[in-house]
Amino acid sequence: MPATEPARNRSALAHQVRYALRHPERVPAHARRAVRDAWLRLRYRDDHIAYYRAVMASDAARSAEAAVGHNPSREAWLRIGRMQFDYLVGHGLQPHHRMLEIGCGNLRAGRLFIDYLDAGHYYGIDISPHILLAAQDTLVAEKLQPKLPYLALADDLAFAFLPDGHFDVVHAHSVFSHSPLHVIEECFAHVGRILAPGGFFDFTFDRTEGAEHQVLHEDFYYRTATLTELAAKHGLDARFMDDWEQLPHRQSKMRVTTTAERARTVGP
User: Fold this and answer.
1) What CDD domains does this protein map onto (predicted)?
2) How far from 69 is each of 73, 154, 171, 260, CA to CA, in Å?
3) Where are the domains of the chain?
4) Contact residues for 193 (Cβ-Cβ < 8 A; gap 6+)
5) pTM of the model as a whole
6) Does residue 101 contact residue 124 with C-beta atoms inside 8 Å?
7) Residue 235: which of 178, 185, 160, 179 has the closest Cα?
8) What is the pLDDT of residue 3?
9) Helix 48-62 and helix 129-141, axial crossing angle in degrees, nearest 10
């Protein structure tokens, strides 16, 4: 793994002061986020889904692109969506696969997956009704209605409303980077049930190999070993995707399969 500042603790006061001195133009935006964070944490307390749904509503009020990746640039929105799509197609996604995208947003990458997959084979879920309305606008703008994608509002990552063994590919980009560990564990506890034989689950996360930490209640940094061990606890094998690190993206990526799938593939 390359050392892309893996030990930096972004929650430390010293780091925040240095960052503010280097980027004074970003201080007002961070201050607004901090005020919003304090208010929403008081309002929602232990309900992280409700908390982050409110964050998304606030960001989406500015623009859908800003709400997906905290970047208002249309060019960046297009570029990062294409990066996700090209990587997944290059690493196993085929048109006949059934795909679930967790945190589909306004279809930054989903519009490309929908166009590529067979009709009815894309299923996107998100916790934000505001961003799902923006996803519908993307479908119309891209003329993707004939591909019959499914878009659904979710309140957790237990997937109770989805069928067993249905999805060849599950994908979550920039979801775990905004999730406390109990939300990630909920996903790991249930994703194996909805994976089809031979299926896999790809996700990105903000990586640290130093002290795990969070910035406000929005950005979480985890060690690779923490997620690997948590996946194993729920019968999943997690593999670090080294080649993703060569791409111009700050997050890292892992691929999860079931341990039963490994036994089937490797054999006795």
Assistant:
1) AdoMet_MTases
2) 10, 19, 16, 34
3) 12-45, 48-265
4) 159, 164, 165
5) 0.86
6) yes
7) 185
8) 37
9) 50
